[in-house]
């Protein structure tokens, strides 16, 4: 197994030639390391498959996939952002392309391996007083364009005028089954249960009003790739509305999905267009659709 790595210390890349589980593949790829060392590289989220971070030992690799291993944790601390790339940065904002599997912000269990924490470290390289503020979130398993503010003032300006500032938020969703209607929209009132499951209330004005527009890009008997535009940005909105449509997002067990053909959640924030809070300029950012989402036509 040959690696075509750029930098001995930082990344190793391997092309998958035959089906295998991830841990045995890594043990073979890094035969100079102990089993425990390889396991900890996996557990710490240093392994990416195509477009998502993978920590499961028994993840089923398929021929044609690319496995990237970030080797040196010390090198990462200084400059390497794990699970994301910076698309744009100025004095006021940072825009990133987040991979599936990376948390936007800290949880009880995970404090450090988050987009927010890494960007905080990133801006503090320039000055210890620098900080990063969360403007909006993407679910851990959703990939794509996400924006952060560099000051409390800018964060407030964006959040207080979110509807006026954000001109477009386009997602792509890979959903189960063939969506027969070429385009349409779903409108409902969303509520959250005590177990944090979001659902559509049958009663008008009972909950937060949510509107999701969709358009079919590609489809076959098994899957449809939809372009989805949000008129409102509610928690888990697309995921609930796709379930309401009868076509749950691939890999979304929480909201009705029955299988996971791509090894991740089929949801990606593709386009974010907004007016810069300070300069007033219109900015547009796009994160390409993950290859695993593309549907083979009938």
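Q: What amino acid sequence fits the structure above?
A:
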């Amino acid at each position: 197994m040959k690696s075509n790595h750029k930098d001995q210390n930082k990344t190793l890349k391997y092309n998958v030639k035959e089906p295998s589980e991830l841990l045995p593949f890594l043990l073979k790829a890094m035969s100079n390391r102990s089993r425990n060392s390889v396991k900890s590289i996996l557990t710490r989220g240093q392994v990416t498959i195509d477009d998502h971070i993978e920590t499961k030992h028994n993840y089923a690799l398929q021929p044609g996939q690319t496995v990237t291993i970030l080797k040196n944790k010390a090198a990462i601390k200084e400059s390497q952002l794990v699970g994301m790339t910076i698309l744009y940065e100025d004095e006021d904002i940072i825009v990133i392309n987040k991979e599936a599997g990376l948390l936007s912000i800290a949880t009880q269990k995970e404090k450090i391996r988050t987009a927010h924490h890494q960007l905080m470290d990133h801006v503090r390289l320039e000055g210890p007083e620098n900080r990063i503020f969360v403007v909006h979130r993407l679910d851990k398993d959703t990939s794509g364009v996400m924006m952060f503010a560099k000051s409390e003032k800018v964060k407030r300006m964006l959040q207080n005028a979110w509807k006026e500032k954000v001109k477009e938020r386009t997602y792509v969703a890979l959903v189960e089954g063939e969506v027969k209607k070429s385009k349409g929209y779903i409108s409902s009132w969303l509520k959250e249960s005590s177990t944090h499951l979001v659902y559509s209330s049958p009663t008008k004005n009972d909950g937060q009003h949510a509107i999701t527009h969709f358009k079919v890009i590609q489809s076959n008997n098994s899957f449809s790739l939809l372009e989805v535009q949000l008129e409102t940005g509610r928690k888990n909105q697309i995921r609930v509305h796709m379930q309401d449509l009868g076509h749950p997002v691939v890999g979304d067990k929480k909201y009705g999905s029955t299988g996971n053909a791509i090894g991740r959640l089929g949801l990606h924030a593709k386009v974010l267009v907004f007016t810069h809070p300070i300069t007033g300029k219109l900015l547009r950012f796009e994160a390409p659709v993950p290859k695993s989402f593309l549907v083979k036509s009938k």
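Q: And what stands out in the fold?
A: Residues 1-8, 74-78 have pLDDT under 50 and may be disordered.
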